[in-house]
Structures are given as C-alpha cells and as structure tokens.
Write a structure and sequence with these properties.
By secondary structure, the chain is mostly beta strands. About 0% of the residues lie in helices and about 40% in strands.
C-alpha cells in the first residue's frame, strides 16, 4: 500500500497519457486549481477481472491564499475503460459533497479514474486538494471464463447473472437471467435474451435486442436502434415517454434522458405494432402486420414497412 502524490510540475493530465498509476489499497493525493489546463485529473489503475472495486474521493476547498480550510470541495468521480470510454460517474453520494463508485471489473486491464469538480456555479471557486482511495474484493474467480473483452461474447452457457463490458465493434449476448451489458465505445450489437436485463449501447451506433423480460434500454451517444423482430406478439413503443408493452416489449423501459441517452430508431415485430418517435429524427420499421407509425415531434420520419 502506498500514497501516490501529484507533483507540482507534472499535472495528472485528463487522458490516457497520464503519468500517474495506483493500485487497490493505495491512495492518490492531487490538486485541482480550475485554471486553464487543470480542471480534471486522470489516474490509471490496473484492475483484475471478477474483483469488485470501491473508489472514493474526498476533497477540501482551497482558500484564496493557497492554504486549506475546513470546507468540502464538490467532487465528481468518473471511471473510464482502457480506450477512454466512460463506464460510470458519481457526484455527491458519499458524505455530502464527496463521491464514490463501486465497479466489478469484467476484464483485467488498465482503467482510468477521473476527478473533477462542480463548476456550474460561477460564484463558487471550487478548487482544492483531493484524496482518492481504492479497495478491491474478489467476488467472481471465474470471471475470466465467462466475461471477456473480445468482440464476441456469449454468456448463454451460464445460469448466473453476468456483467459484460467491451470496447470496439462488439457482439455481446447475455443469458436467460438478469444481465447488465454495455457496449461502451464502438458500433455494438447487444442481446439481453431472457431475464430483466440492462442494455447500454454507450458511444457510437448500436443495436439493442432486449428479448423477453422487463429490460432497460439505453442508447447513449450516436444513432441507436431497438429491435423487436423476434417478438411473439405485436408491440407498442413510445420513444418520447419511454414506455413499451406487448410481446417482448412488455415491462421494458426505454431511457429518454437528454439527447445523449436517447434511442432514435425502432424495428417492430412481424405482427400489428404501434411505434411512436421522440424529438430526434426517427426511423420506424413496421415490418409485417397492420402497423401504426407516428413520428412524434421530430422533423421527419422515414417510414419503413415490409420485411426489413
């Protein structure tokens, strides 16, 4: 266990080129001045597949004279994968203004911890010193066997819930239990299959196929599509209010939280569907059946019928 300190003449740059690394059990001490070039710090960390990590950050505000007072700095904690794709973010859930994340690594490798501060209040000089601490506990010794970082992952051979993350143009398949699948960066195809799954496309253009069960579908950046082609009955999908019912869509939640998270396109079933868009430009595929397609408030709606 060691304490790693940010040196005055070498900033912890906010990208994968950072000069600083830490390990579970270590602490990292750094400073954010919120001047040009010093608004966010990255620290690299080697994580082992199947290990659950708790990452905490505590900050202290700096007085105008450069010494520290007793006030807490409003920190924001973010975790990135080896290619710089965001995995998760936390703001203010640990002891007031401090932040904390829990993450079970699906693959072994280098990850990056980001520390920044809340800057939306122009009257607040939210700069100062912070301390990052990381602990790790092995929770799944078989993680290397069923959770990998390759471009094709199929967890159909396990009866345990799995968490799949991978960067690149990936095809990730869950099993018939409650899985969590994230494509991170790249053009991905995510299959939830059975169970109540969470599918997160991440960056770029993704295809999400929840399958049976009450799934949560989040597009992320890019142009994203949800697909109900295999549904045994017709579906009713409303991208604008995030609702879904009928067939494989029954119980699904479509995340519509700001432009970055929205689903843009829907592929219906081979039966009678009702598909409604949102404020983005949508493509709605009716496929077979007597379908009702409504573009919603978007500027244009490419209507596609037949077997797409």
């Amino acid at each position: 266990m060691a304490t790693v300190k940010e040196m005055m003449m070498q900033d912890a740059v906010a990208n994968a080129g950072t000069a600083y690394m830490m390990s579970a059990g270590d602490t990292f001490e750094g400073t954010i001045t919120n001047t040009a070039g010093d608004t966010e710090d990255w620290i690299g960390i080697e994580m082992e597949a199947g290990t659950k990590y708790t990452i905490s950050v505590e900050g202290t505000l700096a007085e105008s004279g450069g010494t520290m007072d007793d006030g807490a700095m409003d920190t924001i904690l973010t975790l990135f994968d080896s290619k710089g794709g965001m995995i998760n973010m936390n703001d203010d859930t640990k002891d007031g203004l401090n932040s904390e994340l829990e993450f079970t690594a699906p693959v072994s490798g280098t990850y990056y911890i980001s520390v920044s501060t809340y800057r939306s209040n122009p009257n607040l000089d939210n700069s100062g010193m912070y301390t990052v601490s990381v602990t790790g506990v092995m929770v799944d010794p078989t993680a290397r066997e069923k959770k990998t970082g390759t471009e094709r992952v199929d967890a159909d051979d396990t009866t345990d819930p799995v968490t799949l993350y991978a960067s690149g143009n990936d095809k990730l398949k869950g099993g018939d239990v409650n899985d969590e699948i994230s494509g991170l960066s790249g053009d991905d195809t995510l299959y939830g299959k059975g169970g109540d799954d969470i599918l997160d496309g991440g960056d770029d253009n993704d295809l999400l196929v929840g399958g049976p069960g009450a799934d949560t579908l989040k597009g992320g950046e890019g142009q994203d599509t949800i697909d109900y082609s295999s549904s045994p009955d017709g579906v009713t999908i409303h991208l604008g209010d995030g609702t879904a019912r009928g067939g494989d869509a029954e119980g699904d939640t479509i995340v519509d939280r700001g432009n970055a998270d929205r689903i843009e396109h829907v592929r219906g079933s081979m039966y009678n569907d009702m598909l409604t868009g949102n404020s983005r430009d949508n493509s709605l595929w009716g496929r077979a059946g007597d379908d009702d397609l409504d573009g919603g408030p978007a500027r244009r709606l490419p209507v596609r019928r037949g077997r797409q």
